[in-house]
Every structure is written in structure tokens, then in C-alpha cells.
Amino acid sequence: MAGLSFSDQLKARMDVAEWPHVCPRQIYLLIPVVFLLAVFVYRAVFHPLARIPGPTLAAVTGNWRNYHYFAGTWHKDILDLHRRYGRVVRIAPNEVSVVDAAALKQLYGHGTSAIKTSWYDVWTIPGAGPAFFAVTNPHLHGKLRKRVSAAYSMSAILRYEQYIQSCLDLCMWKFKTFADEGRVEDLAEWLTALAFDIVGEIAYGKKFGHLKTGKDVFNMRGSIAKAFYLMANSGHFWGQLFPINNSLIQSMATMLGGKNPLVEMQRYAEGRVNARKQGKDEVGREDMLAHFVRMKSLDGTGLADQGEVLVEAMNIIGAGADTTSVGMSACLYYLGMHPDAYNRLQADVNKFYESENLSAPITYHQTQQIPFLKAVVMESLRLFPSIMYQLLRISPGIVIDKKYIPAGYDIGISPMAQNRDQAVYGPDANEFRPERWLQSDEIVATYERYNMTFGGNGPRTCVGKNIALVEIHKLVAQLLYNFDFELVDKEHPWHVFTFWFAHTSKMNVRLSVRPGRKIEQPSD
Fold first, then answer.
1. CA–CA gap between residue 202 and residue 167 (Å, rounded)
2. What does the mean pLDDT of the chain come to?
3. Running DSSP on this structure, what letter comes out for residue 119?
4. Which Pfam families does the UniProt record give (predicted)?
5. Pairing mode of beta strands 95-98, 410-413
6. Annotated binding site for heme
């Protein structure tokens, strides 16, 4: 290159023809690598959420969060994250988890401008109408919820109390047989069976048969668990590439000989809806399905169509059983792990039965006259709510703990984390102490205001809250009155696997009938 100017020499050296060791294919392969590096650097350093603390991998890829979700350990992970990073934690490139009492009203309160994210789209059911849990439009949600609210009201649930009690009677009889035979049983499994049979009674007019047979009838429990696990986690993939509620995915699964858990549940509910509409499934009394069949259409011009009725019939199965069974398991877990609370509550229940000279099973209204029972239930549900994931919203642009979360990014509060906020419940927020609910009305009102067990106190509060409260109070009181129980292995008292809901299992207990208690076999 002698005699060439400096610029000409530089041009010659940059000529690809002078680089025989570099081929176009290698250059093309470098392009996506460079692109990904650029994306990662942007997300970690220049992104609007870059200053929010959190795991480094979580800042650059949502797969960090997805991995922990699929691992089923989020009930532990979310607590560890906030313990390590503080009140505001970045858990994905565009998502923040927060623990903050003031944020509850901003995100979930009445009149909030924070709407649900696209994650909820995955809960849409093909062939069914819009579900008020899944819809992101606040106005539509209000209309959908209003037309079913009467079916879930406390007065309506108490009209079904005798049918709830029939399930509890069968459950007590089952427990008696276990006690008589000296069997160790998984209490969590039987409480789930109880919850499903109660849903059968109040929603469809008869038990499903889980308690009587000791089996997962119609594969309901297994189908719902699989569906929730896949749906809750697939909603975080780009474009929701693996939603099992996608019609194409359903068809492909069927062609390949697979079973789609959502389809199995949908077919059962659809069969019951059709039978009821055709007069082939008359039960001779009011139930929730009767209410759904009589629902008005959204425009009020006639009855709701098939899809609208179907989605409500599925909602009560999918959400009405698991949430309640988790609550029952939590109460008995904490009592089993805390003998002082166990003994005190059992004594209070005994005293109430004696003072009221009760011969019939205790009613829900009567359980509300035992303050320590209410305290145990509230404390157990506070420490172990059924929902563990964040309730996601699109940030309207808010400041939390001096950190600004710009508008448009995903933000959410996990009930598991919020319910242990030391700013609300004190330095012992992680401890089981039912007595905290026996303090002054003012203090208890504060606890309730910031409690996330049922999704907060706004318009999106869990519609099945009353079902859960009635079942849990009655079950705990009647079990402690009739039985003594102990956790067989207090080192490993139960197993928890999280998939949106917390799934409990392997809660092995030994039961014994208390002296003087008569537990008769139900006729049905």
C-alpha cells in the first residue's frame, strides 16, 4: 500500500475482500447476538425501570420469573425477594412487585385508573362468555359481576347452609372411620374433596362424590390443578405462545391423543348447563346454577346466552373449591403447629357448645360468637392466602417508597407478601399470633383494610369470599369439637406447590374421636 494516502489505506483495510477469514454467514450469526446484548444492556442500564432493585437476570429477561413460577416455589420466592430488595422489586424487565399499604387503594381501590394487564387474557375460555375475573374493562367487569353478585351474597350462601352441613356431616363420618381404624391420612386431600363436594351441592344441587368415593370424580381436581398451573404461567410468555385455552392448541392436543384439562372441565360444566336448561337435571331446590340460567343478558333484553351461563358454571368449580380448601388446610396447619392456640380454641369451642346446649352442628352465625375462632381464621388466612402471585395492573404512574413506576408498566401486589407487611402488622408480622385480631376495633379495622387475602377491599374483591368464610369457620369448629388431631411429622408438616393458587398436600394427620362425641353416618 506504499504511496497511498492514509484514508485510502484505511479504506483498503476495511474492504471485506481483504478479510478472507470472515464469511457472510459468520456476520449474520453475529447479528442476533449483538442485538440480544444490546437489548440486555438497555434493560439493565437504560430502561425506565433500571433503578428498581431486583435480581440481575430478572432485569434482562422474564424467564427468570417464569422459571420460579414453573418451579412452584413462589410462596417462598416472593418473601425472599422483598426481604432482600425492599418494598419495590423488579421481577421482570417490565414488571414490578410491591408491598405497600397506600398502593392497595391506588391499584385496587374503587375508582382506580390502574386496569388489569394482558396476562388476564389467558383466562378467557373458548366457547364461553366473558368472565368477570378475566375482563380488563372496568365497566364491563362491573356489569358482569353485578348480575351474579346475588348468588354469592352472604344471605344466599346461608340459604344453602344445610347443604353445606350435609357435606360436613359426611366429612366428619369419614374422619371417624379413619380414627377408628387408626389410619394416618392426608388431611389436605380430604379437605379439598370436601370443598369440591360443597361446590357441587350449592352450585349444581348435589355432591360430586369426592368424599363418598374418596376419588377425584370426573378428574375435577386434577384437571383444574393442571389448567391453573399452565394458564397462570403461560400468560407471561410473549404473545402467550402456550395458552391451553387457545382453540388451535386444544384441537392439536385432541388430534395427538392428549387431554386438555380445561376442555375436560368445560365439557362437564356444559353438560350440566344443557341438562338444566332442558329440564333433565331438576334438583327440586334453588342452587347457584338456577341463578345463572335465569341471568339477564348484558344488554338486559333477554336471558343470558349459553356461553355466558357456561362461564359462570365453570367459574364456581374452578375458583370456589381450591381457594376454600387452602384456607381450611392453613387453619388446621397453624393450629397443629401451635399447641397453645389449638388448646385455647378447642376449649372455647367446647365452652360455647356447653353454654348453648348445642346438640345440632354449630351454625355459621354461632361461630361468629367465638372471638378466638374468628381470630384463628383471620390469622391463618393472613399468613397463608390462597393466591400467591401478584394481582397485576398497568401502572398509572405512581411513586412507591420514593421509587417512580412510570405509566404503562406492569405492577402488582402479592397477597402473600402484603399480608406480612411489618408496617401494618408490626415486627411480628411473620408470626402466627391470632391475638392480634382481638385488639381494639380501630386496630383490627386497619388490619382488615390492608388485608389482601381476598384481593383487597375494592371492586375486584374475590366474589367467593362468603363461601370460603362459611365453610372454614364451620369446619374448624366442628372438627375441634369432635376430634383431637396431630400432625404426624412436624418437621415436614405439609407440602406446598404454587401455581397462582397454593396447592397443599402431604398434610398427614392422626385423628381420634373425643370422649362423649357421637358421630352418626349420614343417610345420603
1. 11
2. 90
3. G
4. p450
5. parallel
6. 462
